[in-house]
Amino acid sequence: MCIFEPFVADEYIERLVWRTPGGGSRGGPEAFDPKRLLEEFVNHIQELQIMDERIQRKVEKLEQQCQKEAKEFAKKVQELQKSNQVAFQHFQELDEHISYVATKVCHLGDQLEGVNTPRQRAVEAQKLMKYFNEFLDGELKSDVFTNSEKVTHFLPLRGKKSKCKYHDLECQLIQEFTSAQRRGEISRMREVAAVLLHFKGYSHCVDVYIKQCQEGAYLRNDIFEDAAILCQRVNKQVGDIFSNPETVLAKLIQNVFEIKLQSFVKDQLEECRKSDAEQYLKNLYDLYTRTTNLSSKLMEFNLGTDKQTFLSKLIKSIFISYLENYIEVETGYLKSRSAMILQRYYDSKNHQKRSIGTGGIQDLKERIRQRTNLPLGPSIDTHGETFLSQEVVVNLLQETKQAFERCHRLSDPSDLPRNAFRIFTILVEFLCIEHIDYALETGLAGIPSSDSRNANLYFLDVVQQANTIFHLFDKQFNDHLMPLISSSPKLSECLQKKKEIIEQMEMKLDTGIDRTLNCMIGQMKHILTAEQKKTDFKPEDENNVLIQYTNACVKVCAYVRKQVEKIKNSMDGKNVDTVLMELGVRFHRLIYEHLQQYSYSCMGGMLAICDVAEYRKCAKDFKIPLVLHLFDTLHALCNLLVVAPDNLKQVCSGEQLANLDKNILHSFVQLRADYRSARLARHFS
């Protein structure tokens, strides 16, 4: 096969030029000759025209040949179509002839059957009359009475004299079925079962089959697995024996549930029902779960029309006496268990829970404390103990989680939301009120007054642990309670109760944090009072000041940094910024008021500026723009203590001080030792 490259005119001409003598352009003996090249082009064009004519004639010849062959092919196809039509006509004639013959054969068969059927009935009637004669005479000689293999072909007899024989035959057939089952002869079992279908004792035959199926079936320690294997085995076999396999299998399952499983469940639950509530609930949950799992496996089998209802009734018949009062047992156990967990914790701390009052007086104290932030009653020294334990919380949540799981499994769908709500209220009572709320109340009582010296502030530790615990509580609410109540009216009730608990706790946390911040400010005030001297800002020797900032400033900054770090470790999210902003504002107010107490010489003013610069550096740790802005402004105000009198107005109109009230500016200028000089008063007026 020849493969032609695509024709490119430029390349073709280029090759032609190079082959032609005198067509080159590089000089030499044969320099470029345009006439010779033109002549070569003309000759070559003529050759191409001749070649084109030759190829065109060849194409026309091939087209004519192709048209001729197409006509011959079309003619041949027409001939084949005619032949096919003739063959189809012959096929139709043959089909009609076969149908005619088949009709004749069917008619002949009907005639033969019309003759043979009466004859066969007459023969069977003769045999039956013979059997009746033998039965009435009492001499049973025929094979149908004496051979057990033939008895299955004997039809049930009727009448007074046949009752005894009817019963004997029925017993013989059942015995034969039993023997065949023990031998594993499925075909014989099927024959006998088909005959017994016409007897009253057919149900007894099914009972015998069910009883023998269960012999040796329960050899393992797991009765539920044994029952599943038994039903799978019978399901494969029962269709080969009985004409109504779904009824027989359903009766077997009913027998397993009502006898074997019910007896097993009763033995497992009754012994611990009154003595051990925890074990009783665990066993009830486990047995009910395994029973429903078995029911799910049995759903694969054909048990009739409504197998779901059938299996549900069987499960209910086993557990109804236990499920009726399940929630009472559950809530009673959960309360006692939760109380024991809490008491065991407080005992380990050698702590006797103090009674948190309720009623009108306590409510009045609470309202006063919220509005005035005053500590009502004596302060309690908790020795740094928060009385919150994550171990206790995990135990309470684990017990409640298991209770929710049991509630989901064991409660009737109509009772599920109400039962879940009861469990939730117990969790709220023991976790939120008896543990968290008690710890908050104890923590509030342990916060010292704001004028206490060297007070240990442990309430932030309570805040940290309370936040962690409440996150765990909220997670369980969403993960385990919400799915149980999400589509019921109890949802809004639970959300409302949760909201009330959150608001109550947040109120106490806010109160405790506020009082703790007051204590922090009180500690700072005590440091400033004890460490700051009047001579710090008005030294006797102006030329002999060697310190960069005062000792009071150093101690206050160290204390503030420690408290800031503690706040950051105790809280999360926006709460950190909110508390730090509040502390920063109060810190600024304290320093502002503190500076207002002194009179400043020129060198003392410089030292005050250095102190404020250090306070500002400390304020940067807050990472709160407002706090930093306050200290920047305070730093600018301190410049009024040292600026030359002639420059006071210029400094006051600067960017940081221009928007401040004139009284504030005046109050700082008045702190200067040289304020009363006429020159200074004149410049500032």
Topology order in helix (H) and strand (E) letters: HHHHHHHHHHHHHHHHHHHHHHH
Helix content: over 70%
Main pleated sheet:
none
CATH T-level topology of the domain at 538-683: Methane Monooxygenase Hydroxylase, Chain G, domain 1
The N- and C-terminal alpha carbons lie at a distance of 115 Å
Q: Please provide the count of β strands.
A: 0
Can you identify the CATH class of the domain at 538-683?
Mainly Alpha
What kind of oligomer do you see?
A: single chain
Which term fits the overall shape? flat
CATH architecture of the domain at 538-683: Up-down Bundle
- Our count of helices gives 23
What does this 3D model show about the protein?
By secondary structure, this protein is mainly alpha-helical. The chain contains 23 helices and no strands. It has helices at 9-19, 34-137, 143-146, 163-183, 186-196, 202-213, 223-238, 245-270, 277-298, 307-323, 326-348, 360-372, 390-410, 416-445, 459-485, 490-531, 551-570, 574-595, 602-620, 625-638, 648-652, 662-669, 678-684. Residues 155-161 and 358-364 have low confidence and may be disordered.
